[in-house]
Write a structure and sequence with these properties.
- It is built from 21 helices and 16 strands.
- The radius of gyration is 29 Å and the shape is elongated.
- Strand 15 and strand 16 form a beta hairpin.
- It is α+β, with helices and mostly antiparallel strands and 517 residues long.
- Helix 6 packs across helix 17.
Length: 517
């Protein structure tokens, strides 16, 4: 016989059982999906090559928590773990997780896992990798990785930099690196390119690195050449080669012979040197678009009007300006000025060092737009130039570069869905470990997104990654109070069945997970 609630109220108040370690209702759907994805992708296999079962399973649990809870605050994990099927044998406390982050996982083992996973991500054949970096603000003090850099939202905050390489065709994170916040992008790129260069000889594959124009430099190009890495980059508008190519080919590009109907753009590919003394043939893909020309014109003249307004105010007030400040206007305006004495030199670093130097100042008397220079600049509106180290046609280059935002999508998921808007730990070891867990969560997020692509073709709203995770969370099991065993009470609904089919999860897989609770 099983006593009902009235029995405990009337006869056995002191016999009410203690709260169990696990809830009477356990969510199993998200665990079954993550277990299947991690096994199929080889993620579990690569983790177990480097880490113990206890370590690997805890990191999978924490990455699953990030996906489920949209949080990276591990103090909340024990509460979450009580109501979810997990990889670990028991729900770890927040103090255990804190100790685990601080000292269990060495940087050398993280780097080894990075190498193994990157090797698995390389295919035989042609492969595009997209590379970029982001920063995360932190208030941690006395931590080497947390330094003042160039934070996008507030330069006064200290930060940690993290770089990702993402496989373009499916957005799968390939590798990551963590750097102190003060390290500049070019230095970070050097380290990442060295690492990717070591992977090149592992398979008969052709790796092409796609970066934005911020990484365009002679040194970086040389590093990719030395590492036998191909590249596809966008030229900066102020580079000499950009000016020379547009001067030579701008009129030819807009010929009907170079019209690309699929994208409603014009494009042509030419060969030239990228830098003075460059001994290799480079392929330049010059593209022009009427829509981009319209956008460039609007942007340019909006900025020009704002600059002219500032200039007119300085003239009206007879404000003293330095030579550098005056030259900031000289690109687009013909200026008439006179010397006006000196003003304190407030260049960066001078004030902090206590130096008080003076520099010559000027008063701008009059200004008029340099129409000839502006018209010359307007001839470049609508143009973009891509450069590749290997031969490809304009269409291929445009299509490959247009998907460069796959790495930005990974950063967006990390910061908006996986809790990477703040770090929340206070030692270098903890930061490295937490970055690894974020990397695992980003991999799993990408796998869910890719496996369920066909669902979004007909119903984008109902099958976002967030909605898919919520629907999986609802697949649960209840404890039988007689036997202490868990049992699924409901059949999956139609949407859940469609998701499970895409992820390769069967109802038998669900029930198998329940049997192990």
């Amino acid at each position: 016989m099983v006593p009902n609630s009235n029995y405990f109220l009337i006869f056995a108040k002191d016999q009410i059982p203690e709260q169990p370690n696990r809830n009477t209702n356990i969510s199993v759907g998200i665990y079954a999906a993550i277990r299947k994805l991690a096994m199929d992708s080889g993620l579990t296999e690569e983790l177990l090559k480097v880490f113990s079962e206890e370590e690997a399973y805890l990191m999978l649990d924490l990455s699953m928590f990030m996906l489920s809870a949209k949080s990276a605050v591990f103090q909340e994990y024990p509460h979450w773990g009580r109501s979810h099927a997990i990889f670990s044998e028991s729900v770890r406390s927040d103090s255990y997780i804190s100790r685990f982050q601080k000292g269990s996982i060495s940087l050398s083992r993280i780097n080894l896992f990075n190498e193994l996973w990157a090797k698995r991500a390389i295919d035989d054949g042609k492969l595009y990798f997209c590379y970029d970096s982001t920063n995360i603000n932190s208030q941690s003090e006395g931590v080497f990785l947390v330094q003042k850099g160039h934070a996008k939202d507030d330069n006064s905050l200290e930060q940690v930099n993290v770089d990702y390489v993402v496989r373009q065709r499916d957005g799968l994170p390939v590798t990551f690196r963590v750097f102190p916040g003060a390290i500049i992008d070019m230095v970070e790129a050097t380290e990442m390119l060295k690492f990717l260069g070591t992977l090149k000889d592992l398979k008969n594959s052709s790796i092409t690195i796609i970066c934005d124009r911020g990484y365009m430099s002679e040194d970086n190009v040389q590093r990719m050449d030395d590492a036998s890495l191909n590249f596809l980059l966008m030229l900066k508008s102020n580079m000499n080669v950009t000016k020379d190519l547009l001067k030579k080919y701008a009129a030819s590009v807009r010929s009907s012979a170079h019209y690309i109907p699929e994208s409603d753009q014009y494009g042509m590919t030419v060969t030239d040197q990228l830098f003075v003394g460059d001994t290799r043939t480079r392929y330049f893909h010059i593209v022009w678009s009427s829509d981009r020309e319209k956008d460039d014109r609007k942007t340019f003249f909006t900025k020009l009007a704002a600059k002219e307004l500032r200039l007119r105010r300085k003239i009206e007030r007879k404000e003293q300006v330095t030579y550098d400040e005056m030259m900031d206007f000289a690109d687009w305006f013909k200026l008439s000025s006179t010397k006006a004495g000196t003003v304190p030199d407030n260049k960066k670093g001078r004030k902090a060092s206590g130096e008080t130097k003076e520099e010559e100042s000027y008063v701008i008397n009059s200004a008029e737009r340099d129409v000839e220079n502006i018209d010359e600049c307007a001839k470049k509106f609508g143009f973009r130039i891509l450069v590749s180290s290997e031969k490809m046609d304009t269409r291929e280059a445009m299509e490959a570069y247009s998907k460069r935002d796959c790495v930005e999508k990974v950063f967006s998921a990390l910061k908006s869905t996986l809790g990477m808007e703040k770090i929340g730990v206070y030692s270098d070891d903890s930061i490295h470990t937490k970055m690894l867990i974020w990397f695992l969560a980003a991999i799993l997020h990408s796998l869910i997104f890719n496996r369920t692509m066909e669902l979004r073709e007909k119903d984008r709203k109902s099958f976002t990654v967030r909605s898919i995770i919520n629907l999986l969370e609802e697949i649960s099991a209840d404890e039988d109070l007689n036997t202490g065993k868990y049992k699924r009470r409901f059949k999956p609904i139609r949407k859940q069945n469609r998701i499970m089919k895409c992820l390769g999860v069967t109802i038998d897989d669900i029930d198998s997970c329940i049997d192990k609770l």
